[in-house]
Amino acid sequence: MSKLFRTCRTPDKSEAGFTLVEVLVALVLISVLAVVGVEGVRTATAAASAILVQVRYNNTLLLFDRIIRDAFSGFPPAFWGRPPTLIRDDAGYRIIDTADGSAYQVTVRAVTGLDDLLITYGGKTVLIPGVTKLTVTEARNGQGLVAGYRFALTVGSRTQSFVADFGGVRL
Questions:
Q1: What global pTM score does this model have?
Q2: Does residue 66 have a pLDDT over 60?
Q3: Which residues pair with 163 in a beta bridge?
Q4: Nearest 5 degrees, angle CA 130-CA 124-CA 59?
């Protein structure tokens, strides 16, 4: 019988492993750290996505502003006589200057099936992506004369207005 007790002896403290309570505490700590880590990654991803949307929005607006200002610099100033004519058709908007016989025009139209604008002027064609809606109206100066056109541009859910004046004359 003494042989049986010798083989089933209790281990010393130096040979002891982890207790069940220690293992459970370690698992709880690892779980808490994992949840905090996942939430941190989710928050960082949402913030990066919001920044990317804002950057795309700003880039679209800056591109549109630059292109429209370049396109409208081909028109003579408003005080030279009759302002260019705004024509709205199924394809979009055409702004035509026939006062000096040059028939300079700016065409702004939506690309079918895409949220894009196609702007054609002075032999140039530019595609501006991400524009969901465009409205063009007359912009008048202090004397009530048409001195340019106001563009209301919608990108995503936000709308921004631009005023393009003729020949670089400020309204």
A1: 0.64
A2: yes
A3: 150
A4: 30
Question: How many Cα atoms within 13 Å fall on the side-chain side of residue 44?
Answer: 6
| C-alpha to C-alpha distance for 49 and 118, rounded to whole angstroms | 27
Alpha helices in the chain (DSSP H): 2-7, 20-72
Has residue 118 got a pLDDT over 80?
A: yes
Residues facing residue 93 across a β-bridge: 88, 108
* Tokens 């003494």 sit on residue: 2
Torsion sign (Cα): 118, 121, 126, 130: negative
So what's the pLDDT on residue 24? 94
Count of C-beta atoms within a 10 Å radius of residue 26: 11
Convert the pLDDT of each residue in 13-47 to its tens digit: 666 688 889 999 999 999 999 999 999 999 999 99
Give the pair of three-digit tokens for residue 156.
């995503």
